[in-house]
Specification:
single chain, 6-stranded mixed β-sheet, 17 helices, binds zinc ion
Length: about 400
């Protein structure tokens, strides 16, 4: 078989496109495949598809998948056609999208690598600048998202993920049943819920068909959901509700430690022994927690710790047990725990709804750790758009077949 026939078949080229020659330069680690169209061919006008005569051509070059360890390029003269109806038009080539210096297969490779590897590393691997790689990601994420179908979404979860150091957040909306990211945008206020609802509508979904939403206890989320997802019942996310109690425990410990004395000394260095689940305790942590919790020592932190353990049992048992817990915490003479109990009572409906709706935060926590892992691989992102594109790429289950042109194969 001739090399030109081999490449013709491997590239899947059909007439009028044909491989004219291949130039292999091992010393340069370079393979150039030159493609041309048969003389006298009529090519389809991009507007109407009618075969038209060629007006003129310009030579273009595209980076293709490596040929073994050698960089490969396709080179072709790209024609403009003279259409009787539409005038002079540039024709589309089947191996690349307009304006890109990469072939579609090469862009597909970038999209396959990007969820697993920092864009900077991909750029180094393929010897291209990382802004070019980001541009490819941006294009295909936007294309695939424009076609994303969000019909039938009924159950959503909202959460925020830290975008950069400090108080800089991106809010993420997830389709709980399909386990996919629907929408992400900067900020974490009511406006992000409005934007998510508008985006849902743009993708064929219906905000009034959303009947169940999980989120944290932020008043902005609650107000946004009440307003923009009017038929949704809110379930306050278990993780964040539990956090109310662990934060109260930590506050109590810090306060008591600050007072010093033998009690303060006993608490020193035992922050994690108290915050961690007993199931995950190391032997020394288990001993420390047990000692601090001993009623005879009359430690405030000991009482707070016993309240935390009781809370975990009550939150599993049901609303009655949770109500008894709140009464206990309110009378505990531990201001931080009494505050947590008040907060739970103030969010009562959304908290006990968990016993019936059973929306777990596990899906959000799973996504969050994937996004944060990507962020630390990248050592942070230069801007929000990069982070958001990566969130979609990792979590949105996007279908790239249309924008990569693989739907025809
Ligand atoms: Zn035309």
């Amino acid at each position: 078989m001739k090399d030109t026939d081999l490449f013709q078949m491997a590239l899947g080229l059909v007439p009028p496109w044909l491989v004219q020659e291949s130039i292999f330069q091992p010393s340069e680690k370079l393979l150039e495949i030159r493609i041309d169209f048969a003389r006298g061919s009529r090519l389809p006008c991009p507007e109407c598809g009618v075969g038209c005569p060629v007006h003129d051509t310009t030579e273009k070059r595209w980076r293709h998948l490596d040929f073994f360890q050698h960089q490969a390029y396709l080179v072709a003269r790209v024609p403009r056609v003279q259409c009787g109806q539409h005038g002079v038009k540039q024709v589309a080539v089947p191996w690349a999208r307009p304006g890109s210096g990469f072939t579609l297969l090469f862009e597909g490779l970038i999209l396959a690598m990007a969820p697993h590897m920092a864009v900077k590393r991909i750029a180094a691997l393929i010897h291209e600048h990382d802004t070019l790689v980001w541009r490819v990601i941006r294009h295909h994420v936007r294309e695939a998202r424009s076609r994303a179908d969000h019909r039938g979404v009924t159950t959503m979860a909202f959460d925020e993920t830290a975008a950069r150091r400090g108080h800089d957040y991106v809010t993420i909306a997830v389709d709980v049943l399909q386990r996919r990211v629907l929408f992400a945008c900067p900020g974490r206020d009511g406006a992000t819920i409005a934007a998510a609802a508008a985006d849902l509508r743009r993708h064929g979904g219906d905000p009034s068909a959303v009947t169940s939403v999980a989120c944290d206890l932020s008043p902005a989320f609650t107000a946004g959901i009440t307003r923009h997802l009017p038929n949704a019942e809110i379930t306050y996310d278990r993780f964040h509700v539990t956090q109310l109690v662990t934060v109260a425990l930590e506050e109590t410990r810090r306060e008591e430690q600050r007072r010093g004395g033998w009690k303060g000394g006993l608490l020193k260095g035992n922050r994690w022994a108290l915050l961690r689940n007993p199931d995950n305790h190391s032997p020394s942590q288990a001993k420390a927690a047990e000692l601090i919790a001993m009623p005879d020592l009359h430690l405030k932190t000991g009482r707070a710790y016993r309240l935390k353990l009781a809370f975990q049992t009550a939150y599993a048992d049901g609303p009655g047990a949770l109500q008894r817990w709140c009464r206990w915490a309110a009378r505990s003479r531990l201001p931080a725990m009494a505050k947590a109990a008040r907060s739970i009572r103030n969010h009562w409906d959304g908290i006990v709804r968990w016993f019936t709706s059973n929306i777990t935060s596990a899906i959000m926590e799973g996504f969050n750790s994937l996004f944060q892992a990507a962020k630390s691989r990248a050592r942070g992102y230069r801007n929000h758009q990069y982070f958001i594109d990566m969130i979609y790429l990792i979590g949105a289950k996007l279908d790239f077949s249309a924008s990569l042109g693989t739907h025809t194969k």
